[in-house]
């Protein structure tokens, strides 16, 4: 019994130790920092000239073009969408079946025709839907070049974490940048990034308070038939 208690205590300690780690559950390996580029040895010049190739890059383009270079993305995302749909249908049918005769006489019961039939159908449907959505995201985030394509386009990614009072918030961005779109101050607008994947979310008490519980999500999902 003592051994069992010791094992349970060790298991609880391991769980608490894992819960105290600094790794955020929403961190992704694909956004891990890029390995620092290896510095190549520079040739040593013994000339007395003030302009040495090792410290003067007179003709090099200052815009990012290598893996590990940095680029600042100016977030200017704004979307507005609205949709309204309305449908109304109506159909009326009326049929009269006269009473048949038997040997020239109507079929009656106490003088009342019993096979005379009238049918009428009235079907109506009315449906209406309205949907609207608006989003806005502004700010700056510096990303890193993680790959250079054969046409010199740059694959970039980066994330920014902000620790607030009751939780953390993060911005992630990933996409392909054309070097010609990079401005003189080494910035680029987010709407100039191809295949852009931009995420803004967070974790903590404030973020969790805006989420429905799992039971409420089930009742509001397509799996609940009522």
Structure write-up:
There is one protein chain. With 226 residues, the protein is mostly beta strands. Helix content is 13%, strand content 46%. The chain is built from 3 helices and 10 strands. Strands 9-1-6-7-8-10 form a 6-stranded mixed sheet. A two-stranded antiparallel ribbon has the order 2-3. A hairpin with a 2-residue loop joins strand 7 and strand 8.
From the structure above, extract its key features.
6-stranded mixed beta sheet; mainly beta; 226 residues
The side-by-side strand order for the widest beta sheet comes to 9-1-6-7-8-10
Give the number of helices.
Answer: 3
- Using only C-alpha atoms, the radius of gyration works out to 36 Å
Structural class: mainly beta
Overall geometry: elongated
**What string gives the helices and strands in order?**
HEEEEEEEEEEHH
- Identify the quaternary structure here: single chain
Q: State the separation between the terminal residues, measured CA to CA.
A: 50 Å
Mean pLDDT: 75
Any low-confidence stretches, pLDDT <50, length ≥5?
A: 18-23
Short description:
The chain has 226 residues and is mostly beta strands. 13% of the residues lie in helices and 46% in strands. The chain has helices at 2-19, 205-209, 214-219, and strands at 70-97, 101-102, 105-106, 108-109, 112-113, 117-148, 154-164, 167-177, 187-189, 194-204.
How is the secondary structure organized here?
Layout: H1 2-19, E1 70-97, E2 101-102, E3 105-106, E4 108-109, E5 112-113, E6 117-148, E7 154-164, E8 167-177, E9 187-189, E10 194-204, H2 205-209, H3 214-219
Parallel strand pairs: 1-9
Antiparallel strand pairs: 1-6, 2-3, 4-5, 6-7, 7-8, 8-10
């Amino acid at each position: 019994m003592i051994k069992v208690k010791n094992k349970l205590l060790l298991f609880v300690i391991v769980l608490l130790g894992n819960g105290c780690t600094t790794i955020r559950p929403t961190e992704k390996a694909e956004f891990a920092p890029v390995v620092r580029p290896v510095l190549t040895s520079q040739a040593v010049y013994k000339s007395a000239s003030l302009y040495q190739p090792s410290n003067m890059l007179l003709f090099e383009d200052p815009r990012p073009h290598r893996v590990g270079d940095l680029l600042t993305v100016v977030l200017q995302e704004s979307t507005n969408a609205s949709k309204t749909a309305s449908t109304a249908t109506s159909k009326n049918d009326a049929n009269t079946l006269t009473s048949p005769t038997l040997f020239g006489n109507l079929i009656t019961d106490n003088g009342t025709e019993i096979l005379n039939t009238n049918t009428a159908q009235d079907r109506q449907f009315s449906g209406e839907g309205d949907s609207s959505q608006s989003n806005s995201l502004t700010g700056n985030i510096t990303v890193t070049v993680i790959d250079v394509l054969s046409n010199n386009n740059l694959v970039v990614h980066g994330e920014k974490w902000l620790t607030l009072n009751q939780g953390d918030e993060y911005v992630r961005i990933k996409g392909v940048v054309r070097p010609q779109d990079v401005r003189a101050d080494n910035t680029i607008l987010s709407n100039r990034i191809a295949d852009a994947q931009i995420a803004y979310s967070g974790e903590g008490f404030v973020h969790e308070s805006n989420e429905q519980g799992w039971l409420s999500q089930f009742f509001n999902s397509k799996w609940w038939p009522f």
